[in-house]
Design a protein that fits this description.
The protein is mostly beta strands and about 60 residues long. It has no helices and three strands.
Length: about 60
C-alpha cells in the first residue's frame, strides 16, 4: 500500500482496502480498493480508452 507502481503509461497506488459484507445476510460480498491513478508520461491521456470499461468509479470524500 501507498507505493507507486508505474507501467510506463500510468502510475497507480493503493491507498486503502476494506471489506464490504453483504447487506442482507452478512456473507462475504467483496472488497473496496481505493486507488490513486495518475498519468505517468508526458502525453495527455484519459482512462476512457484504456480497456477499463467497468470497475472504476470516482467517489469524493463526502460520498458524491
Amino acid at each position: 500500500m501507498n507505493e507507486w507502481l508505474l507501467n510506463g503509461t500510468w502510475r497507480l497506488r493503493v491507498t486503502g482496502i476494506r471489506f464490504v459484507p453483504s447487506p442482507k445476510d452478512r456473507r462475504p460480498w467483496g472488497w473496496v480498493v481505493t486507488t490513486e491513478t495518475r498519468n505517468g508520461g508526458r502525453q495527455a491521456l484519459s482512462l476512457d480508452c484504456t480497456g477499463i470499461e467497468e470497475g472504476i468509479s470516482v467517489t469524493l470524500k463526502n460520498g458524491d
